[in-house]
Design brief:
- This protein is α/β, with parallel strands linked by helices.
- It contains 7 helices and 9 strands; from the N terminus they run αβββαααβββαβββαα.
- It has one domain: Aldehyde Oxidoreductase, domain 4, CATH 3.30.365.
- The chain has helices spanning about 10-15, 85-100, 105-115, 115-130, 185-205, 260-270, 280-290; strands spanning about 25-30, 35-45, 60-65, 145-150, 155-165, 170-180, 210-215, 215, 235-240.
- The strands form 3 sheets. A 4-stranded mixed beta sheet has the order 4-5-6-9, with helices on both faces. A 3-stranded mixed beta sheet has the order 1-2-3, with helices on one face.
- A hairpin with a 6-residue loop joins β5 and β6 (about 170-180).
- The longest helix has 20 residues, at about 185-205.
């Protein structure tokens, strides 16, 4: 006899698996004159160090992912590009912080650090297509950039945001991704995969969150678990690199990797406030704005 089990929305959000939580702490140093990383110490708790070691030249680096028993008391599942998006968010945010401290344009710093010709070409494709204007941040324009990788695929994301300093609300105005996944067999299908990934990650970065209190889950429906509406999705532009290869890579996971970092760097460029906790809710943005040094 066939049996069908159907969960309602509250049961689905309560019983299904969650994206793993993580904390990443990075200590680093930069030789501003040469634009070189002198040391990089990254500790990741909650996920592995997957994709933490990226195509950047760092003289001294250490990556640690200590095992933490029972860190996740609830059921968790793999989110797209497991671990990579978490580590990219921390790494790319830290790079922009270093660039600002040294008075360097974020793209200039990444060009000096990149040791992969594919990444350099993709970085050039992204900034030229977007119309990046080099300047040390924060510029007030609200434009941020981040790089990411998943397996053999590379992605560079550029975001433009507007931040309401009175409410803390972030509005994404434009988003571009340059993607190198080798030979693109179905351009329309691949572009739609990238657009869908960016749309999903805008929700992840700005509004979607499961909160707990006293062991109870507070967000059991879409009145508080806030998915992005159509009005929150910006103009999205996708460009694929002509890598000159017949090798193909998957397209479903790589595009998610740099999205949150690009948005965080765009918020910093707009306001000088560094948000380090995903999602960037209005409350967290307002708290970050309070920490901006007075001019």
């Amino acid at each position: 006899m066939p049996i069908q089990l159907a969960w309602n929305r509250e049961e689905d959000l309560f019983l299904d698996g969650y994206r793993p939580a993580a904390v990443v702490k990075i200590r680093s140093g930069l030789d501003a004159g040469r634009g070189a990383i002198t040391f990089w110490d990254s500790i990741v708790a909650g996920v592995s160090q997957g994709e933490a070691e990226f195509a950047y030249d760092m003289q001294t680096n250490r990556y640690q992912a200590p095992a933490v028993p029972d860190l996740h008391p609830l059921k968790i599942g793999a989110w797209r590009a497991p671990n990579a998006h978490t580590n990219a968010f921390a790494r790319e945010s830290q790079l922009d912080a270093l660039a600002a401290k040294a008075g360097l344009d974020p793209v200039t710093l990444r060009r000096r650090l990149a040791n992969d010709p594919r990444l350099l070409r993709l970085l050039d494709l992204a900034v030229e297509t977007f119309g990046w204007e080099p300047a040390p941040g924060p510029t007030g324009r609200g434009i941020g950039l981040a790089c990411g990788a998943w397996r053999q695929a590379l992605v560079v994301a550029v975001a433009q945001v507007a931040v309401d300093k009175a409410t803390g609300k972030v509005r994404v105005e434009r988003f571009l991704e340059a993607v190198d996944v080798g030979l693109v067999v179905n351009p329309d299908g691949a572009r739609q995969q990238v657009e869908g990934a960016i749309t999903m990650c805008i929700g992840q970065a700005l509004s979607e969150e499961i909160r707990f209190k006293g062991g109870h889950i507070l967000d059991k429906n879409f009145d508080t678990y806030l998915l992005p509406r159509f009005s929150a999705i910006p103009r999205i532009q996708v460009v694929f690199a002509d890598s000159g290869t017949t090798t193909t890579q998957g397209i479903g996971e790589p595009p998610v990797v740099p999205v949150a970092a690009a948005l965080a760097n765009a918020v910093f460029d707009a306001t000088g406030a560094r948000v380090t906790h995903v999602p960037f809710t209005p409350e967290r943005v307002l708290e970050a704005l309070k920490r901006v040094p007075a001019k």
